[in-house]
Design brief:
mainly alpha, 3 strands, 179 residues, three-stranded parallel beta sheet
């Protein structure tokens, strides 16, 4: 209940939920009637060809962002459209962990707004701050060290992947203006 009160106090009136139906848990307190929730699962688990290549540990990093944008443009556009079409008030976007699917959508929103790639990377880095606590709550170890090793094995950094994604034609203000 305190969480819902905080969401409303911050002016949020629309929630865009990127989780799949298999991930959703019931609310632990009644959701206020003032909130509109839009369920738009960003992933398409049935597309095994994509996830055989990009799933597992890779999908827990920005390494898959450009491939996802190229393969699932309609899903991404549906989320951005839902945010653009939301009623008055703030919009809260979330997935299961707040780092990967949400990270991709926030990267796009910030890029469309003209935010510099390094600032986007700094914002994304904040998603790691509470990861150990979040993982412990569900009985798992923090996966951040493993993900850092995976990025290193691919010869890149999180910041560089975000820079490349930000500079890619689909994540720029001019591309958004072209439609």
């Amino acid at each position: 209940a305190a969480g819902w009160s905080a969401v409303l106090a911050h002016g949020v009136r629309t929630i865009v939920d990127l989780t799949g139906t298999d991930e959703r848990l019931p609310d632990t307190a009644p959701r206020p009637a003032e909130l509109t929730t839009v369920h738009l699962p960003l992933d398409a688990p049935a597309d095994t060809g994509f996830w055989d290549r990009w799933g597992g540990a890779l999908s827990c990093t920005p390494l898959y962002y450009r491939a996802f944008l190229a393969h699932f443009p309609r899903r991404t556009c549906a989320v951005l459209s839902a945010i653009a079409d939301a009623g008055l008030g703030g919009v809260l976007v979330h997935c299961g962990g707040g780092r990967d699917r949400t990270g991709l959508i926030v990267l796009l929103l910030l890029a469309i707004a003209g935010v510099d790639a390094d600032e986007i990377a700094d914002d994304y880095a904040l998603s790691h701050a509470r990861r150990p606590e979040q993982m412990a709550r569900i009985g798992l170890d923090d996966d951040t060290p493993r993900i850092r090793q995976l990025r290193a094995a691919h010869g890149t950094t999180e910041r560089e992947v975000i820079r490349r994604t930000r500079s890619w034609g689909h994540a720029t203000p001019s591309a958004a203006a072209k439609g």
